[in-house]
Amino acid sequence: MIARPFDFMAADGTRLGGTVREPAGATGLPVLCLPGLTRNGRDFDVLADALASGTWPRTVVTMDFRGRGRSAFADPATYRPDVEAADVIAGLDHLGIGTTALVGTSRGGIVGMILAATAPARLGPVVLNDIGPVIELSGLRAIADRMTLTLGHVIDSWDAAVADLKATMGRTFTALGDDDWLAVARAMYREDEAGRPVLDYDPKLLQAFASFDPAVGLPPFWPLYEALKDRPVLVIRGERSDLLSEATVAEMAARLPRVTVHRVPDQGHAPLLTDAATIGVIRSFLDGADAGAGR
Prior knowledge:
The chain is an alpha/beta fold and 295 residues long. Helix content is 35%, strand content 18%. The longest helix has 17 residues, at 276-292.
């Protein structure tokens, strides 16, 4: 399946980018995949290829938030979920997509909840990958520590990039083999002019934590989550996640009527969405949502 790159402009003139897979005979709602804070659309390559193939293939769009992946760097003050939600609408308009299903990892899931509250007609069924309305303090600290460590020195080889990932993620991703770690590195890093791996995001993203008080954390945002009430929701949690707790997952399931939960063993924040079991769950969830809506 060929992923076609596309570019579009944000309202403030920032050039943004993504990829779209448009299989012949696509059925059901298109699927929009939004990545985590420091990640990009390459995280979804395995899932997107799977959803865009098979008996009932779907159009699959991945978008890179401003300052990440194929999108240009911007004023760090605009690296905010509300701005990113507006960027997503601009991207959907550029592609001529009205309503879409969503797979949102971490930050991408927060953006999805904002879309449900501000542009509900644009959003169908939603997959929240290891994110909810209560963000655990330990998970926020881990993200900040990982950014500080990986931005703090030059990486001169892919082996060194993998070593960095193992040092920061190995405690919670306990079943990955060498090829798996290299695939994660290839998604998170790009090569510079000298062929060295560099993190594929604006280092100024670290400023997103400038006002973060590690003694307080972030306040819950249950009303934003409850904006998802009119659609099916699949919550995915890494069983070793330090960002999304089991208590929060239980409350999420209790508060909305159409929530399904899937747990990924031996993975932390955020599940990679590359294992066959999880891909199968996502595919079944989307197919079931389409059938329930008469598509």
